[in-house]
Amino acid sequence: MKLLLIEDEPAVVSVITRGLSEAGYEVSVAPDGNSGLQMALNNPSFRLIILDVMLPGMNGIEVCRSLRAAKQEVPILMLTALGTTENIVMGLDSGADDYLIKPFKLQELEARIRSLMRRKSPVDIPVPVTAPAVLSLADLELNTDTKTASRQGKSIALTATEYRLLEYLLKNPRKVLSRLEILEQVWGIEFNMNTKVVDVYINYLRKKINKHHPTELIHTVVGLGYMLRENKADEDTH
Ligand code: CA
Fold first, then answer.
1. Fewest C-beta in 10 Å: which of 108, 185, 192, 202?
2. How far, in Å, from the CA of 53 to the mean position of ligand 1?
């Protein structure tokens, strides 16, 4: 399986390429953002890109944005030395699927790669041959066959992570779901990290779902987590 590593620090490159080669991956390396972007655009056989944020020339965020703008859907795992929420949010906003904060253990990197491959390989996921499975709550619908969401019949474009999050919420309506439960169900058990990412994605999802609809469906349960449910009649709409 071919992976592209875009990273400028020789020590990190050496550890990652050695480790991943031993694990059976074929790793190509680009030492800066511009050449990495070109390699990714010219070579659709990469199954995953490991992308450092701090790079000479074009930085990782810009590379990621350019790839997504070019409709490259390859999974992107970002490496960041700056563990601030702002950087993480910026990385995820630019279209990255996951991130890892340096320094990390090789095993952790491998676990994230496996997790991303599982999520992003539609061919590996058995497609049900039954009637379309539609999950719904109030005027919100999710078709798990076509992976499309809509509210009052108007379609909502979701990223892969937002889709999984909404699917999990819709499968567990009117139930308090803790951030940890959501993290484990949506990001996987090996996604061993801060639950802040759950809040970030809940907010993304809320914005999309509520765009033309003032009625909130995803409710914050203070101190506990989130709950998907219909609004009560006497409740305000926030
Ligand atoms: Ca770097």
1. 192
2. 6
CA of 203 to the centre of ligand 1 (A): 30
> Ligand 1 center to residue 61 CA distance, Å?
12
Ligand 1 centroid distance, CA of 51 (Å): 9
For the chain, strand residue ranges (E) read 2-6, 26-30, 48-52, 76-80, 98-101, 134-137, 140-143, 148-151, 154-156, 218-221, 225-228
Ligand 1 center to 80 CA (angstroms): 8
Residues belonging to the chain = 238
The Cα–Cα gap between 130 and 89 comes to: 38
**Per residue of the chain (238 residues), what is the pLDDT tens digit?**
899 999 999 988 998 999 899 888 999 999 999 999 999 999 989 999 999 998 998 999 999 999 999 988 899 999 987 656 677 778 888 889 988 888 888 888 999 998 888 876 555 444 444 555 889 999 999 998 888 899 998 999 998 889 999 999 999 999 999 998 898 788 875 555 678 889 999 999 999 999 888 889 999 999 899 999 987 655 544 4
8 CA distance to ligand 1 centroid (A)? Answer: 5
- This prediction has a pTM of 0.53
